[in-house]
TrEMBL record:
One family name in Pfam for this protein: Acyltransferase
GO term, biological process aspect, one: phosphatidic acid biosynthetic process
A GO term from the CC aspect: plasma membrane
Protein known as: 1-acyl-sn-glycerol-3-phosphate acyltransferase
Record keywords, A-Z: Acyltransferase, Transferase
Record domain Phospholipid/glycerol acyltransferase: where: 34-153
InterPro entries noted in UniProt: Plipid/glycerol_acylTrfase (IPR002123)
Originating species: Sphaerisporangium rubeum
Enzyme class: transferase
Lineage: Bacteria, Bacillati, Actinomycetota, Actinomycetes, Streptosporangiales
CDD domains for this protein: LPLAT_AGPAT-like
Enzyme Commission number, as recorded: 2.3.1.51
């Protein structure tokens, strides 16, 4: 209920302010489970991406969004709850398995599950290597994967910018559903998981027009931070 209240309040305002362009909305099923696999350029993706859809999109978000204290923590928790985010522990190992099970439960209940395969926001607007969790979800749930591309949201609200920049009109594109039925029953094969993930990322690259980088975004962020420290003369061993 809270999701629809937030959308009813914020939706008209966001439409008025950003006037997002929408392509391919007919590719998203009106009912039944599906995975929306999106690029992740900006914090703005959380509200720009689902905005055009008449269905609720449930996404998996890091637990830290729900554990903050004070007024900022309360507002952050309320926002992510309002946009349909379910908290997960992303520390790896058993936590990653629990996140997978949470995603499978959401899909078995017939919902749209929104996922950002890059795992974090792009540090520079390029498209980075996808993590294979999206492939496991697709093969175990046996639901279609719909590429979900955001354009120009990086310029609206890049990492580190506290408030969105106005005057930029973003685009949301929904690609044709990807069918991975030829791989069903092979979800424990690491090569298959990588092949499925790479196919999803290739579809996102074509849909978004982004330059692709064959490394994880988290690694790129670490490299950038090290380079910044080196430039300041504060590199640590």
């Amino acid at each position: 209920m809270f999701y629809w209240v937030v959308k009813a309040v914020l939706g008209p305002l966001l439409h008025l302010v950003f006037r997002p362009k929408v392509d391919g909305i007919e590719n998203v099923p009106r009912q039944g489970a599906a995975i929306l696999a999106g690029n992740h350029l900006s914090f703005a993706d959380h509200f720009i991406g689902p905005l055009p859809l008449p269905r609720k999109v449930i996404s998996l978000g890091k637990a830290e969004y729900f554990t903050g204290r004070g007024l900022k923590g309360l507002l952050t928790r309320a926002f992510f709850t309002g946009v349909g985010t379910v908290p997960i522990d992303r520390s790896g190992g058993k936590a990653s398995e629990a996140a997978l099970r949470t995603g499978l439960r959401i899909l078995r209940e017939g919902h749209l599950l929104g996922i950002y395969p890059e795992g974090t926001r792009s540090p520079d607007g390029r498209l980075y290597k996808g993590k294979t969790g999206v492939a496991r979800l697709a093969l175990e749930s046996r639901v279609p994967v719909i590429p979900w591309a955001m354009l120009d949201t990086f310029e609206i609200m890049p990492t580190g910018r506290p408030l969105p920049k106005l005057g930029i009109r973003p685009t949301v594109r929904y690609g044709k559903p990807l069918d991975f039925s030829r791989y069903y029953g092979m979800e424990d094969d690491r090569l298959v998981l990588r092949a499925v993930t790479d196919e999803i990322m290739y579809a996102l690259m074509e849909l978004s027009g982004q330059e692709y980088v064959d490394k994880y975004a988290t690694s790129a962020k670490i490299e950038q931070e090290r380079a910044a420290r080196a430039a300041r003369g504060t590199t640590s061993p």
